[in-house]
Specification:
elongated, 147 residues, three-stranded antiparallel beta sheet, Immunoglobulin-like, 11 strands, single chain, alpha+beta
Length: 147
Protein backbone atom coordinates (compact mmCIF):
# COMPACT_ATOMS: atom_id res chain seq x y z
CA UNK A 1 0.00 0.00 0.00
CA UNK A 2 2.02 3.06 1.26
CA UNK A 3 5.62 2.92 2.24
CA UNK A 4 6.48 3.51 5.90
CA UNK A 5 8.21 6.78 4.99
CA UNK A 6 5.14 8.04 3.14
CA UNK A 7 2.83 7.00 5.99
CA UNK A 8 5.10 8.81 8.45
CA UNK A 9 5.07 11.92 6.26
CA UNK A 10 1.25 11.86 6.00
CA UNK A 11 0.97 11.58 9.80
CA UNK A 12 3.39 14.49 10.21
CA UNK A 13 1.33 16.67 7.85
CA UNK A 14 -1.89 15.74 9.70
CA UNK A 15 -0.28 16.62 13.04
CA UNK A 16 0.81 20.01 11.69
CA UNK A 17 -2.68 20.65 10.30
CA UNK A 18 -4.17 19.84 13.70
CA UNK A 19 -1.67 22.11 15.45
CA UNK A 20 -2.46 24.96 13.03
CA UNK A 21 -6.16 24.45 13.64
CA UNK A 22 -5.55 24.65 17.38
CA UNK A 23 -3.41 27.75 16.91
CA UNK A 24 -6.24 29.64 15.21
CA UNK A 25 -8.68 28.91 18.04
CA UNK A 26 -6.17 29.13 20.88
CA UNK A 27 -6.21 32.92 20.94
CA UNK A 28 -9.76 32.73 22.29
CA UNK A 29 -8.57 30.77 25.31
CA UNK A 30 -6.72 32.92 27.82
CA UNK A 31 -4.44 30.21 29.13
CA UNK A 32 -3.29 28.46 25.94
CA UNK A 33 -0.12 29.23 24.05
CA UNK A 34 0.63 27.50 20.73
CA UNK A 35 3.77 28.03 18.75
CA UNK A 36 4.96 26.40 15.53
CA UNK A 37 8.38 26.62 14.03
CA UNK A 38 10.05 24.83 11.15
CA UNK A 39 10.82 21.22 12.06
CA UNK A 40 8.88 21.53 15.33
CA UNK A 41 7.16 18.62 16.98
CA UNK A 42 3.80 20.49 16.78
CA UNK A 43 3.49 20.72 20.54
CA UNK A 44 1.16 23.00 22.51
CA UNK A 45 1.51 24.13 26.09
CA UNK A 46 -0.77 25.64 28.68
CA UNK A 47 -0.04 28.01 31.53
CA UNK A 48 -2.13 29.86 34.05
CA UNK A 49 -3.61 33.21 33.15
CA UNK A 50 -3.29 36.17 35.50
CA UNK A 51 -5.17 36.10 38.78
CA UNK A 52 -7.87 38.62 39.60
CA UNK A 53 -6.57 41.79 41.28
CA UNK A 54 -7.43 42.04 44.98
CA UNK A 55 -7.67 44.80 47.60
CA UNK A 56 -9.10 47.22 45.06
CA UNK A 57 -10.00 50.59 46.59
CA UNK A 58 -10.96 54.02 45.35
CA UNK A 59 -10.64 57.35 47.12
CA UNK A 60 -10.96 61.02 46.32
CA UNK A 61 -7.60 62.61 45.55
CA UNK A 62 -8.65 65.50 47.84
CA UNK A 63 -11.90 66.77 49.40
CA UNK A 64 -12.17 69.57 46.85
CA UNK A 65 -11.11 67.58 43.77
CA UNK A 66 -13.34 65.68 41.35
CA UNK A 67 -10.76 62.98 40.64
CA UNK A 68 -10.43 59.49 42.10
CA UNK A 69 -7.38 57.35 42.80
CA UNK A 70 -7.89 53.60 42.33
CA UNK A 71 -5.36 51.23 43.97
CA UNK A 72 -4.93 47.44 44.07
CA UNK A 73 -2.51 44.69 45.08
CA UNK A 74 -0.03 43.61 42.38
CA UNK A 75 -0.71 40.46 40.37
CA UNK A 76 2.23 38.11 39.79
CA UNK A 77 3.59 38.40 36.22
CA UNK A 78 1.06 41.09 35.23
CA UNK A 79 2.44 43.44 32.61
CA UNK A 80 -0.44 45.93 32.74
CA UNK A 81 -3.90 46.55 34.15
CA UNK A 82 -7.24 47.84 32.88
CA UNK A 83 -9.63 50.01 34.88
CA UNK A 84 -13.40 49.65 34.56
CA UNK A 85 -15.95 52.22 35.76
CA UNK A 86 -19.69 52.07 36.45
CA UNK A 87 -22.10 54.86 37.28
CA UNK A 88 -25.04 52.40 37.49
CA UNK A 89 -24.23 50.05 40.37
CA UNK A 90 -21.52 47.88 41.90
CA UNK A 91 -22.69 44.93 39.78
CA UNK A 92 -23.45 46.25 36.28
CA UNK A 93 -22.83 48.90 33.67
CA UNK A 94 -19.02 48.78 33.59
CA UNK A 95 -17.04 50.31 30.74
CA UNK A 96 -13.30 50.38 30.23
CA UNK A 97 -11.82 53.77 31.14
CA UNK A 98 -8.09 52.93 31.02
CA UNK A 99 -5.94 50.14 29.56
CA UNK A 100 -2.22 49.48 29.59
CA UNK A 101 -1.90 50.91 33.09
CA UNK A 102 1.55 50.21 34.54
CA UNK A 103 1.84 50.06 38.32
CA UNK A 104 -0.78 49.51 40.99
CA UNK A 105 -2.53 52.89 41.05
CA UNK A 106 -4.47 54.95 38.55
CA UNK A 107 -5.95 58.44 38.87
CA UNK A 108 -9.04 59.40 36.91
CA UNK A 109 -9.59 62.59 35.03
CA UNK A 110 -12.19 65.02 36.34
CA UNK A 111 -15.39 63.12 37.12
CA UNK A 112 -18.89 64.52 36.63
CA UNK A 113 -21.25 64.78 39.57
CA UNK A 114 -22.50 61.28 40.35
CA UNK A 115 -21.79 57.94 41.97
CA UNK A 116 -18.93 55.70 40.80
CA UNK A 117 -17.66 52.15 41.29
CA UNK A 118 -14.40 50.82 39.86
CA UNK A 119 -13.05 47.36 38.98
CA UNK A 120 -9.57 46.31 37.81
CA UNK A 121 -8.37 43.47 35.55
CA UNK A 122 -4.79 42.27 35.04
CA UNK A 123 -3.06 41.38 31.77
CA UNK A 124 0.00 39.34 30.90
CA UNK A 125 1.14 40.51 27.50
CA UNK A 126 -1.60 41.05 24.94
CA UNK A 127 -3.31 37.65 25.03
CA UNK A 128 -3.99 36.84 28.68
CA UNK A 129 -6.42 38.91 30.76
CA UNK A 130 -7.97 38.14 34.11
CA UNK A 131 -11.59 38.57 35.05
CA UNK A 132 -12.38 41.87 36.72
CA UNK A 133 -11.99 42.37 40.46
CA UNK A 134 -14.82 42.91 42.86
CA UNK A 135 -16.12 46.45 42.81
CA UNK A 136 -14.74 49.21 44.99
CA UNK A 137 -16.93 50.83 47.58
CA UNK A 138 -19.18 53.56 46.22
CA UNK A 139 -17.46 56.89 45.53
CA UNK A 140 -19.64 59.99 45.19
CA UNK A 141 -18.64 63.16 43.37
CA UNK A 142 -20.58 66.28 44.31
CA UNK A 143 -20.45 69.63 42.56
CA UNK A 144 -16.75 70.57 42.79
CA UNK A 145 -16.12 68.10 45.62
CA UNK A 146 -15.53 64.41 46.19
CA UNK A 147 -16.85 62.35 49.09
Amino acid sequence: MFSAALTHRILHVLMLALALSLATTAAAHADWGVGLTANSAAEASSGPGPTIPTSVTSACTSPTATTAKVSWSPVTNATSYAIWESTNSATSGYTSVATGVIGITWTSGNLATGTYWFEVSAAIGTNWTSATSTATAQLTVLVAACA
